[in-house]
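Suppose you are handed a protein chain with no further information: no name, no annotation, nothing but its sequence. What can you learn? This example shows the usual starting point.
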Amino acid sequence: MTRTERSPWQITWSVWHAMFMREVLARTMQNRFAWFWMLAEPIAYVVIMVWVRELVGRTRFVIGADFVPWLIVGLAPFFLFREGVTRSLGAVRANHGLFAYRQVKPVDPVLIRNVLEGLLKTVVFVILLAGGGLLGYELYPDDVLGVLNGWLGLWMLGLGGGLIVSVGATLYESVDMSVRLSMLPMFLLSGVILPHHMLPHGVQQVLLYNPVLHGVESVRLAFFEGYRSLSGIDASYLWLWNLVLLALGLALHIRFALLLKAQ
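A reasonable first move is to predict its three-dimensional structure. Written in structure tokens, the prediction is:
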């Protein structure tokens, strides 16, 4: 019997499927508390910020949305972006042994990790929305397609950033720590826990250069009818960044493919 040759797409799909199952087991079964920590982090942020709000006398920080739903809808998209970037940092090194197979490229583990993180964070987001709904909060999106557009845009932004930093962190170990440290100021500058409309107008205009802010606020604007955000929020600005980062990230992986395999 003659063996039928597989097409390049079939080979690539087989590689991705095998790597995806490997990442699923490593991500969800590495310890018995893996799922707990995925839910505990956003819940802890919500509890802390609600407590802070109580201390300052329940000041109405947000116009057009309740504080707790506003917070949940901002935290989940940011964590989607953050995990896409930080999980990509060690993706190439962690799968170095697989590069002995010529079908496996350094870009593959980065893509697979981002797909997995996107799926996991989507499940966590749905669980948080359902949990908030059971507690009596209004957590039903006003514009489902708008929410999906912002959610997918931030996932793509994390993927584009992940492709870039995965090359840098593999070639230079110092990049890993620098990227992780940058996530805290990014968290604060993206309007996740405190609305930026309270800041001076000049500061607001500078913050609008941050594409993560556009993604987070786009999700909120689609989620809450009547929500008032910064003037100038535009989802197309986020997608423009996505195109640039994805093109640059893929170009870097093509340029340094042999060097990444040798690390």
